[in-house]
Amino acid sequence: MILIIDDDIAIQTSLSLLFRKEGFAVRVADGPFDTVEVLAEETPELILLDMNFSVDTSGDDGLRLLRRIRELVPNMPVILITGWGSIDLAVEGMKAGAKDFITKPWQNDHLVQSVRTALNLAQTIPASLNRRKLDQQFRFDNIVGEDPNLLDILTTVGRVAPTNAPVLITGESGTGKELIAEAVHQNSRRQRQPFVKVNLGGISSTLFESELFGHVRGAFTDAKTDRVGRFELANKGSIFLDEIGDLDPGSQVKLLRVLQDRTFEPLGSSKSRTVDVRIICATNRNLEEMVSKGQFREDLFYRINLISVRLPALRERPGDIPLLVTYFVNNLKTIYGRPDLRVSPLALKWLKNLPLPGNIRQLKNGVERTVLLSSGDELQADDFERNLTQQASATALHRSAGDAAFQPSFPAVGSMTLEEMEYQMIQRAMTFHQNRVAKVARALGITRFALYRRLEKFGISYTNEE
Ligand SMILES: Nc1ncnc2c1ncn2[C@@H]1O[C@H](COP(=O)(O)OP(=O)(O)OP(=O)(O)O)[C@@H](O)[C@H]1O
User: Which domains, ranges and CATH numbers included, belong to the chain?
Assistant: First the structure.
């Protein structure tokens, strides 16, 4: 049974009709008194609570009632209904333990989805599964690892993937956030629909709207044709908003609106469009800290992190390093046609103790470099040491960048790939210009956004500057 708490008869009726049609039993309560009475008689599966249910529109009554409900039935999922004007209230409510909030006027589909998601998530959390069980039940084919922390994460992903709950994935650069985002989509009912990735760190605030919501012809000088935005492309599927911590305040508000109402208007158009998308976000920043410093909207934070998973750094799961290396080498065997390629047991042991600040991406790139530059079939610790210890090469680069006597010379043909050279040049320019992205881009003769894309690709850390 779903309990609807609202003193507006029109809302009571429309919500009751909606949920009865969806097959739920429904009861309604006008306010605190009725609510306590209903709760004494039976236990609902979920409560829908209008925060502005009384004439007093401050919402204090709503918050007080929410707290009372939490005392009476602590684990009961509660979804709040608020007006746009009182979204702060919803945030207060989330802090007080509500599971989700919906703004008026709501989209019926979205509200029903939110209720079903909260009900699914309210079921008892199963214990973490072992790797074999996980592989039997879900599709995690390209995610290697057996660390207990990772298995917890995969269990959570398997459990929440079929719901529509937004998922926030955090973790240092290169820890596999994108891979986990793909796994959420692959294990959901939306798996045959689009998975659209957007790197918010690489989109300027001026392009944000047109990129995400699209534009109509003539919306601005260069808009020669209509353009479909990423949200529309992701309709029925999932949208992966990477680097969400990099979003400027103006864009945060625009994003909140679409996440809230599932509606938006393309630039230059006054016609609203509605989309049905699953939201998956990732960041390597500490969003809670950003919220407390006023750099990230609290309402947006609560909107995106119904479920959050934090990926461990590779140094927190060194036991997985040999598994990862073996997996990468096995893939490269096929790619480079070297069927006898393998890694010596000593090298695997040595690799386990390597500091890898760039995490799995650094390990993967380093293994590929090692495979390319070593001719033997059995890769030794020495081979990896030469190609994988970026720390050492970064220091060497730093030295050479500031050294007037340094004579630039090209590496011998065959000793380095073009991509490797590009990587080294970017690293060197970043060191030389002390990570000032605008200067580095100028020195390399590319645009800032082209540089951001490459920094992302190579997992080189940088600070955003406008
Ligand atoms: N568990 C894993 N098993 C195998 N490969 C992995 C695993 N985790 C990550 N990788 C590989 O490491 C690389 C980096 O992963 P990914 O791009 O998902 O990291 P990320 O956390 O999203 O990084 P960033 O924050 O820099 O965007 C990718 O090539 C990915 O395929």
Answer: 2-122 (3.40.50.2300), 131-312 (3.40.50.300), 315-458 (1.10.8.60)
